[in-house]
Amino acid sequence: MKFNPKWAVTASLAGLALILSACGSSSSSSQKKTFTMPTDTELSTVDISKSTALGTFDMLNNTNEGLYRLGNHSKPETALATKTTQTNNGRHYVIDMRHNTKWSNGDTVTAKDFVYSWQRTVDPKTASQYSYLFSGIKNADAISKGKMAPNTLGIKATGKYQLTINLDHQIPYFKLLLGFPVFYPQNQKVVNKYGNGYGTRSDRMVYNGPYKLTKWNGTGTTWTLAKNNDYWDKKAVKMSSIKYQVVKDNQTALNQYNSKKLIGAPLTGNQAKNLKNNKDLISRPQSSSYYLALNQHMKLFKNLKIREAISMAVNRQQITKKVLGDGSIVNNSFVSKGLAVNPKTGKDFTADTTAPASMKYNPAKAKTLWQQGLKEVGITNPKFTILAPDTDAAKQVTEYLQNALEKNLPGLKVSVSNIPFRTVLARQASRNYQVTFANWFADFSDPITFLNIYTKGNSSNISDWSNSTYDQLIKASNTTDANKPTQRWNDMVKAQNILLKDQGITPLYQSAAPWLLSPNVKNIVYNSAGANYNFKNTYVK
User: Fold this and answer.
1) How far is CA 484 from the centre of its chain?
2) H/E element, 427
3) Spatial separation of the C-alpha atoms in residues 247 and 392, rounded to whole Å
4) C-alpha gyration radius of the chain
5) Which residues of 354-382 are buried (b: 16+ CB within 10 A; e: fewer)?
6) Are 332 and 268 in contact (CB under 8 A)?
7) Lowest pLDDT segment from 294-303, 399-408, 473-482
8) What is the torsion angle, in degrees rounded to the nearest 10, for the CA atoms of residue 168, residue 169, residue 174 and residue 178?
9) Residue 330 and residue 344: Cα distance in Å, rounded?
């Protein structure tokens, strides 16, 4: 997820900032039913079809409900679904829903709300960066390309509380998708009421999950998740509210934590080192990939030697150990380590793939390739700007990249532009950048959640790299080999090898999130893939 994406977006540094920590002492039971969480990025939209950032998906996951809700270890648990029947070799689903569940405006949640939501997301007019996740559902690909009408999508309401879903082929991870916010229902009446303003403020949206988003004006740095008394399982929700505050400076967050204004604080690498003896300090791995995307519409980046030189000029160990120092790791992979294992051997996906020589720090070779590449493209004054968010971690990494690239690539001039996250997402989506520091967070626990986005034409393929063999392998893994676990795995391994050898992107590291977690905060469901946090059953002891 990005970034965007999974920034899922393209995805996001938001994952580093969603922190829980020591609770302020209080004898008041009412005070124990609320706390304030820090985050380092503003919300951009809570429109389910248009959201891309990791932090936003956490909000959607707690304010809305789909057919399934993901529990510990990403296990799909029934939510609005009460019975699921599969036939036709896993390609035909009939899903019965709970009756009389409510939206926060009092409307009943029906099967038609799912049909409308899915059709809206795949409709090319919506321009959803997540429409590709519907690939495999009957006619989804043709609809996304504008070749068929959205109402031909393979989902139908066959009753007020019953859905029938037809797939083009078996999707091994389909229930995981149904637990991801992009597959949640939407209230058509509300979407039509607010038009372009839908999801741009907390009061221009309705909710059917454990909490409601409140007190968000669309641009503000604070908002609240308030208990939703219209939620079908409201008895399970213990917190009256969870408040959010944007704090971009880590030291400020730590100071506010120490003064009990926040329940926690995101930690930099140095802070984590200084607090290494704190019994509440933990570091959670994240199913992420932080990377450089080189805009391949630019003449400079169409040259493979140039792309290889940039990769070889970067010391990834220095980034993880000295620049960040927060538990992040060098992965030499786009797919994150620990996400999925070989169905036959049990080996991690990253152990089966091969990192090319261009993924290793080699300044001498980088210089040679750089000079050869510049000669081939006829550029004598190479320069570019790295676009990145204005968070502490992004500033630190891009400062290192600026220095390393200028040092190891003769004649290169690098500028850095650290700007608000939502603006970064918009510029990545419109390809209005030269080089961007990007990330992708897994939407579900399968390698395809990373690999899908670098197929030709995918809206999250922000570098616009393409390779026909890569596309064929990904297509096979999603279609003809979908029901052949070993062959499907091999397709994905071969695809990643192509992506890395051709330096379609430049992977840098896989992130970790060091933070303090109070033992008084109970029943938090954390998953490294997809929406990270599920606070439905959370309470403070």
Assistant:
1) 27
2) helix 421-429
3) 10
4) 23
5) ebeebbebbbebbbebbeebbeeeebeeb
6) no
7) 473-482
8) 10
9) 26
Q: At what angle do helices 468-478 and 485-501 cross, to 10 degrees?
A: 160
Strands (E) in 423-503, as ranges, are 435-441
DSSP conformation class of 24: P
H helix intervals, 181-245: 188-194
40-84 per-position pLDDT tens digit: 889 989 999 999 887 899 999 999 999 999 998 888 999 999 999
Structure tokens at 367: 């210089």
Q: What is the pLDDT of residues 348-391, one digit of tens each?
A: 999 999 999 999 999 999 999 999 999 999 999 999 999 999 98
Residue in the block written with tokens 């992040």? 328
Distance CA 350, CA 327 (A): 18
Which residues, including other chains, have CB under 8 Å from residue 478's CB and lie 6 or more apart?
135, 136, 169, 171, 448, 452
In whole angstroms, give the CA distance from residue 186 to residue 64: 9
C-alpha span between 296 and 307 (Å, rounded)? 10
Q: Give per-residue pLDDT as tens, 286-295.
A: 899 999 999 9
Instruction: Residue 53: name the closest of 100, 109, 12 by CA.
Output: 12
**Checking DSSP bridges between strand 413-419 and strand 383-389, what pairing results, if any?**
parallel
Q: Of 187, 190, 191, nearest to 114 (Cα)?
A: 187
> Which two tokens mark 459?
């809206």
Strands (E) across 217-257 are located at 222-227, 241-246
Q: Residue 436's beta-bridge partner residues?
A: 293, 387
Q: Where are the alpha helices (DSSP H) in 78-173?
A: 111-122, 140-144
What residue type is assigned to position 145 of the chain?
A: K
Burial group, residue 346, by CB count within 10 angstroms (0-12, 13-18, 19+): exposed
User: Among 103, 105, 129, 125, which residue's Cα sits nearest to residue 114?
Assistant: 103
Contacts of 59 (CB under 8 A, 6+ apart): 43, 46, 213, 223, 225
User: Residues 259, 264, 265, 267: is their CA dihedral positive or negative?
Assistant: positive
Give the β-pairing of 539-540 and 521-522. antiparallel
Q: Tell me: pLDDT of 20 over 50.
A: no
